[in-house]
Specification:
Blueprint lengths: L1 H17 L8 E3 L6 H4 L9 E3 L3 E2 L7 E5 L8 E8 L3 H15 L6 E3 L7 E15 L2 E14 L7 E10 L5 H26 L1
Parallel strand pairs: 1-5, 2-6, 2-7, 3-7, 4-7
Antiparallel strand pairs: 4-5, 7-8, 8-9
Helix pairs in contact: 3-4
């Protein structure tokens, strides 16, 4: 009798395990590659442009998408199962490389620190999150971008760029599109400032 009870109990446990909900799937996001049609051609220099790794603090180094429900953005939270394809500093650096190449700003644009004459760009991520405010969502992006010429003590350009873009839609794909638009706007402003600085 006891043996039958154990078998029935095991059957109930195994049946319960098989009806568990499926594990959520991880989702990974990247930006749309910029094209010359999106940007326009804008040769700024014939010097090599080196783009160093971007810097960031804390959560901005992690791949999970960040959001806040706090209008002051004092509390940041991470999405579960939704990640950037790489960390935001690398994502933003690589997108700047693609942006400058598509705009044909220089004949040679490469990542890494320059060791010869040329221009260097460094960046720091200070904001990169989604803000839920009432029934509307926005993305906040803030980057400090710096342009240096090899051999100069002071930078040619040092400025913090900010973009706040409204999300058109409810899906996370719409959020990524808004991030992409905000970064595209920042980099367009940066190229305009580079032209003045050079």
């Amino acid at each position: 009798m006891m043996r039958y009870l154990v078998i029935i109990l095991l059957f109930i446990i195994l049946t319960g395990c098989s009806s568990a909900p499926p594990v959520p799937t991880d989702h990974f996001y990247r930006f749309k590659t910029p094209t010359q049609g999106d940007i326009g051609k804008q040769r700024l220099t014939d010097q090599v442009i080196y783009i160093n790794s971007f810097l960031a603090e804390g959560l901005y180094n992690e791949r999970a998408l960040l959001y806040t429900n706090d209008n002051l953005s004092q509390e940041l939270q991470q999405y579960h199962y939704h990640f950037w394809i790489t960390s935001p500093p690398d994502l933003l650096r690589d997108y700047l490389v693609s942006f400058l190449r598509a705009a044909d700003t220089s004949p040679v644009i490469i990542t890494g620190a320059g060791v010869t004459d040329g221009l260097q760009i460094t960046g720091r991520v200070t904001e990169f999150e989604k803000l839920d405010s009432g029934n509307q969502s926005y993305v906040n992006v803030a980057l400090e971008l710096r342009l240096d010429k090899q051999g100069n003590e002071l930078p040619l350009l040092l400025k913090e760029y900010r973009a706040n873009e409204q999300v058109q839609g409810k899906s996370l794909t719409d959020v990524i599109t808004s991030f992409n638009t905000a970064v595209l706007r920042i980099y367009s402003d940066f190229v305009t400032d580079m032209e003045s600085a050079l």
